[in-house]
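Appendix B, record 7
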Amino acid sequence: MKLSTQTRAIPVAMALAGSLALAACGASNESSSSGASGSSSAAPLSGTLNGAGSSAQQAAMQGWNAGFSKEQPNVTVNYDPVGSGGGRTQFIAGGVDFAGSDAALKTDSELPDAQKRCGGDIFELPNYISAIAVAYNLPSVKNLNLAPDTIGKIFNGTITAWNDPAITADNPGVTLPSTKITPVHRSDNSGTTQNFTDYLSKAAPSVWTHPASGDWPVQSGEAGAQTSGVVSALNAGEGTIGYIDESQAGGLGVAKVKVGSDYVGPTPEAAAAVVESSKVQAGRSQYDYALDINRTPTSADQYPIVLVSYHIGCIKNPADKADLLKAFMGYVISPDGQKAAAQQAGSAPITDTLRQQSQQAVDALAAQ
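Structure tokens (predicted):
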């Protein structure tokens, strides 16, 4: 596969050389249905697709590119992880063929603009499910429980020390230090922020009075650009706490979140379970599968701070792009594509229901 050498584009060629450890992700490409087959018997294509968006989606994109290149070695897929908001903006402006986003298009502004850019229908395809971890740097505390109101107070600056009575009440019997709390948030417009603030606004409305937004609404704490910047800030100072894709938590502590009367950790299974209880947003068009995530479950097998990552594009595309998009999006939602993302990014695969819905959009992709 050829690869653009643009700054920050994913190094697919390097991935194929072995750095992604995904040699097995394309080994089972034997199914034969169109679009989502992951079949090596697909008609050979050539050309270039350009995408931009979610930095949290970058790892999954590496897995998808590595697997897709085995089926279509003459197709180049470039992806710039500028953040979800930046990806949506570039797509609407016509700068890229598709966007990767951890939040759906905004119905009151972005959606009409995207439809205008496309000259008709757009697609928003859920491509993986990921838990958002409330990650912290406090070496003396190996296990941490946090209720929604406590999380809200930490991030709005009301709670400023780790031994605050509210945190103590969530963690009976745990010795908490008096260390200052430093909340860390994203500095860029972010789908991760959109989902985290959506959770806070619905699960802790009495303490978190801000609406869901991709831009962080509170002027306090520290900020980091993209997922990597938040992770760096968390690792740089004891007492920090932030919200990141669970697969990026590394050696940081990860809190369990109160759901009903239990505390639940961010596992792929619990993330998939809460999405299964969610519905497609009302008023969306035929191939737009933006979801309204259930942020207030009561079952202990569901984790509510999740994001559903999307690919966003036009149903009708230029002749030199239509077949490329159809093949790539079909691979992404296929079982092989979902396996590749799970292995690379630690994500939960989309459900069979979501795959069947998305296949309808993939089948509809055509030239203008």
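Remarks on this record: The radius of gyration is 20 Å. The chain has a mean pLDDT of 89.
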